[in-house]
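Dear colleague,

Thank you for sharing your sequence with our group. We've completed the structure prediction you requested, and as agreed, I am returning the results in plain text so they can be pasted directly into your records. Please verify that the sequence below matches your submission; if there's any discrepancy, let me know and we will rerun it promptly.
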Amino acid sequence: MILVKTSKATAWVPPCRAGTRPIRKRSLSRREDCLCSGVGHSLDEEAIARAEFYRPAEDSEEMLYLHARREALGGYLPKREVVASSLNPPHAEIFASFDSGSGSRSLSTTTAMVRLLTKLLKDPEVGQYVVPIVPDEARTFGMDALFKVAGIYSPDGQRYTPVDAESLNSYREATDGQILQEGICEAGAIASFIAAGTAYATFGVPTIPFYIFYSMFGFQRVGDMIWASADMMAKGFLLGGTAGRTTLNGEGLQHQDGHSPILASTVPSIRTYDPAFAWELAVLVRYGIQRMFIEDHDELFYLMMYNEARPMPPRPEHADIEEGVVRGGYLLEPASGNGQRVNLLGSGTILFEVLEAASRLREEGFFSGGIQHHQLRRVGERCGAGRAGIGRGGAHLRLGEHTLQRARCADRRCNRLRPGVTENDFQLASRSLRRTWHRRFRAQ
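Please find the predicted C-alpha cells below.
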C-alpha cells in the first residue's frame, strides 16, 4: 500500500476547478477532461466518461517499483511455506538434573522453571532460539538471574545506569539481548509471543517463546489474542506464574487465579498441564520442545507454576513414568492399608495435600493411594473419540491390588477402583471437567 499526502485539487488547471465546495457526487464532463492532461495521464474520451482507473504502463517506474516491493514481500498471494525444522533437541542432561529432587531444600515450581530456562539459554543446540517474554515483574518470578545470562533486548542498548548497578544480577539491556521485558503491557507481550511463535513460518527460524505471566492476567486479559495465536498456528510455552488460589495470599483476590485452566480448555490446540514437582516440569518442557519444534506439531503448551516452596521429591523409578506425565495422569503412590478403599486424585501444589490426606486415611483404616492427574479431561476426550487414553499394547498398569490393561480408557480405569476424590487449586468447574470421565470420583 502506498499512502500519498496531497492537497485536494491543487493540481487542477483553472477550468477544472469547482466554484463551490459542497460534497456531492462528481462526474467527468468534456470540459473537465483537462484533468487528465493536466496531471499527465492519457485517457480517451470514452474512458473519461466511464471514470476508469488510470494504470501506468508495465515498464513505467511506478509499476516496476510496485512489482519489486510485492516480490520482496513473498509474492502476490498469501502463502505459508514451512520448511521442516532442522532444530536439534537440547541435551538430555539439562532435564535429568531435576530428577534427583531438591532434598531438604524447599523449592517452588516457578523457581525450578527459571533454573530450567537458564540451562536452556546456555544450551548450544537451542539456546539462541529461546525467547523469554515477561510483561512486567521479572524479579517477582525470580528471573533477575537471567539478566546476566541473556540480557534484556533493547535496539539502542543500555543508555542509563540502573539503580541496582552494584548488585550481582543488575538490570542489563543489550542490543543482542534475548529477554523481551514488555513493561505492564500484556497486549504487547502476547504480540511478541505471536511473532516469535510464528517465526518458524515467517522467517524459517524456529524460535521457542516462553511467555511468563501472572496466571490471573493471562487468558483473562488477552484470551482473544491467545486464540488468535492458535489460529495462526503459533508454537510456544505459556507459563502461568503464581497459579492457583492459595500460594500468593496477601494481595487480595486480584492475583488468585481459579479459572485459567477452564479458559485454556476452550482453545483446541492448547495442552494444559498442572505439574506439582520440578522433575514433572522438566519432563513437560522437554516433551513440548520435541512435540512442537522437532516433530512440528501446531500446538501450544500451558504450564501452571506455583509460588509455594516445597521440598521437591525425586523422580519415581516407574518405567513408564514419563509417558504418564505427558499423557496427563499416572500412579504416584500405590494404594496400601486395610479397610474400605478410596482413591485420591490431585494436581499442582494441592497434590502435596492430597498425599497428606492419603497418609491420614491409611492411619484411620482406609485403603488409600494417590494418582497425579493434571490433564485428565484431554485423556478422557481421546477415549471418547475411540482412541486409547492410557496407552497402547498389551502392557498393564498395576494400581494397588488391581491390574488393568493399559489400552483401556481413563474412565474405566478409575471407575473400577471404587470411590475417589479429585482436588486441585482451582474452581470446582475445573475438577468437574474430570468428573465427566470418572463417574465415581467426586470433585471437592
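Summary note from our side: The CA atoms of residues 234 and 444 lie 35 Å apart.

Kind regards,
the structure core
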